[in-house]
UniProtKB/TrEMBL annotation:
<dbReference type="InterPro" id="IPR000412">
    <property type="entry name" value="ABC_2_transport"/>
</dbReference>
<keyword id="KW-0046">Antibiotic resistance</keyword>
<dbReference type="Pfam" id="PF01061">
    <property type="entry name" value="ABC2_membrane"/>
</dbReference>
<comment type="similarity">
    <text>Belongs to the ABC-2 integral membrane protein family.</text>
</comment>
<feature type="transmembrane region" description="Helical">
    <location>
        <begin position="184"/>
        <end position="207"/>
    </location>
</feature>
<keyword id="KW-1133">Transmembrane helix</keyword>
<protein>
    <recommendedName>
        <fullName>Transport permease protein</fullName>
    </recommendedName>
</protein>
<dbReference type="InterPro" id="IPR013525">
    <property type="entry name" value="ABC2_TM"/>
</dbReference>
<feature type="transmembrane region" description="Helical">
    <location>
        <begin position="112"/>
        <end position="137"/>
    </location>
</feature>
<feature type="transmembrane region" description="Helical">
    <location>
        <begin position="25"/>
        <end position="48"/>
    </location>
</feature>
<dbReference type="InterPro" id="IPR051784">
    <property type="entry name" value="Nod_factor_ABC_transporter"/>
</dbReference>
<dbReference type="InterPro" id="IPR047817">
    <property type="entry name" value="ABC2_TM_bact-type"/>
</dbReference>
<feature type="transmembrane region" description="Helical">
    <location>
        <begin position="149"/>
        <end position="172"/>
    </location>
</feature>
<feature type="transmembrane region" description="Helical">
    <location>
        <begin position="68"/>
        <end position="91"/>
    </location>
</feature>
<keyword id="KW-0472">Membrane</keyword>
<feature type="transmembrane region" description="Helical">
    <location>
        <begin position="236"/>
        <end position="254"/>
    </location>
</feature>
<keyword id="KW-1003">Cell membrane</keyword>
Length: 263
């Protein structure tokens, strides 16, 4: 059997293993999904009218703020879901199963590939569920063409891939699952410090660089532009560059940590 065939076979086996874990232990995924859903409902129904009036400078219109809000909530969903990847990897590293895998005739990289692919699929499913909640409470993207929908979904998947590799590295570098959860928390905090809830221009001057020069803001603005027809500008290229850079960094970091001999 060729190296490629063995890698694909072993990676698919590890993917099935991770998908079975998600099905048998759904509480972690549901807990991580609860935060973006609650944020969506809170900002849409409690703050929606006030935020809409403040952003648009016109009358209160909850539906307009909901349209603005949803792309940021989808990014928050991805960030939260990838925390589960860090926890899952840390559990594998500390509970002995990785040591067992090292003694078996399997491709070593298949363990990480299974985690990454499984996490990306989990992120996509989470985005679909949160998106369904958004549609149920009134979100519409009437101006988006089929191509723009495809590009938006593709960018969300690319963000999922990039953050998953970073989360895997965090899980590998953590001594236990609790530490992995804490180490990966910035993946959920950074979307809160972006343009997810208010435009960057409306933020205090000292805070704007924090919101502007980070990976989530250009990704959110790109998805927002694709779905709502707003200006994208240079955000599309910035978002793709951030994703490719983070994916490469996370991959090299994870491979280096996983390749070390256990102590």
């Amino acid at each position: 059997m060729s190296t490629l065939s063995r890698t694909l076979r072993d990676s698919s086996t590890m993917l099935r293993r991770n998908l079975l874990h998600m099905r048998r232990y759904p509480s972690l995924t549901l807990n991580l999904l609860l935060t973006p859903v609650m944020m969506l409902l809170l900002f849409a129904y409690i703050f929606g009218d006030v935020m809409s009036a403040g952003i648009t400078g016109g009358g209160a219109d909850r539906s307009r703020y909901l349209a603005y809000l949803v792309p940021g909530i989808l990014m928050l969903t991805i960030g939260g879901t990838t925390i589960g990847s860090a926890v899952s990897v840390a559990m594998d590293m500390t509970e002995g199963i990785i040591a067992r895998f090292r003694t078996m005739a399997i491709h070593r990289g298949s363990v990480l590939i299974g985690h990454v692919v499984g996490s990306v699929l989990q992120c996509v499913m989470s985005v679909v569920l949160v998106g369904a909640v958004a549609v149920a409470i009134g979100f519409r993207a009437k101006d988006a063409t089929a191509l723009e929908w495809i590009l938006a979904v593709g960018l969300l998947a690319l963000v999922s891939l990039a953050l998953t590799w970073i989360a895997v590295g965090m899980g590998l570098s953590s001594p236990n699952a609790e530490a992995a959860s804490n180490n990966a928390l910035p993946l959920m905090i950074l979307p809160l410090l972006s343009s997810a809830f208010v435009p960057v221009d409306a933020m205090p001057g000292w805070f704007r660089p924090i919101a502007e020069y980070q990976p989530f803001t250009p990704a959110i603005e790109t998805v927002r532009g694709l779905l709502l027809g707003t200006e994208i500008g240079h955000n599309g290229w910035l978002a793709v560059a951030w994703c490719l850079g983070l994916a490469a960094l996370g991959y090299l970091w994870s491979r280096s940590l996983f390749g070390r001999d256990p102590k």
